[in-house]
Amino acid sequence: MSQSVLQLDKAKLEKLISYYTPFQVIRNAPGVVFAAKLPDTAVTAYKSGKVLFQGGGATREAGIWGGSDVISSANKTTAPKAKGETLPEGFSELSVLGSDETGTGDFFGPVTVAACFVSSDQIELVRELGVKDSKQLNDGLMRDIAPDLQATLIHSVLTLTNEKYNEIQAKGWSQGKIKALLHNQALKHVLRKMNDRKPDYILIDQFAERGIYYNHIKSEPEIVRENVLFSTKAEGLHVAVAAASIIARVAFLEEMDRLSGIAGVTLPKGAGKIVDEAAAKILLKNGESALKSMTKWHFANAEKAKRIAAKKR
Ligand code: MN
Fold first, then answer.
1. Does domain 91-258 bear CATH number 3.30.420.10?
2. From the CA of 30, how far away is ligand 1's center (Å)?
3. Domain spans of the chain, in order of start
4. 130 has pLDDT over 70
């Protein structure tokens, strides 16, 4: 087991305690002022200001607070390719509820989030349906696979339209907060559909550190916390995330199809120069409110499109 010890001053210790409060556990040991249990790390803080991190994620968690004042660190595990929490042995064969999102980097089109449960006895089937790491699949293939996945797997897919996105973004919600709320909601929906069954783990394709994620959703009436793990590149770690990623992607493509129909042109993805040009054309043809209703209006592309359009007028 990996373990790290830090010596923190009072202010840092208080910060640490409030950070881990959602995961607090009661430990009646001498000198212990606070204890918390994450899925892969136990955190114990002592009166002296010493904080002990134990478990697979010890180095990672200590790294949040330590920097140079790590006073001891033992049995460092080799860093996995994906950034995030240490997953249990044989993770890819367990029953997992996974979630992923799409569209956050695209000027045109919605943000979509999907959550998808794959039980251990469905893993082989899901692979046979063609689910691989979604980074290896193109849009056409994903459109082919998604209906089978949706028919086979307990899932939830949420499409946040541009109108709604722009409305909450204007209220000051960050993309991180928007994503966290959608992930929490999609996971909640799937857990509800699963009735009394429970996944071995929930894996979120990581877009924010655990503490930041939970801070975003702290005011939600229902917060999914139990057995939740975070990792980047999670679509390569379990087919449940890969399937969620495909379902989210296809929901994004379908909304893009709908918006393309309204615009009368195929809307380009991403946020590059082609996007600026297409946006300028729509601005000239359909006006600003039409363009706004199909884009993430706070992106720099909006101003660029206006400049291009002004020159063409
Ligand atoms: Mn992702």
1. yes
2. 43
3. 3-72, 91-258, 271-312
4. yes
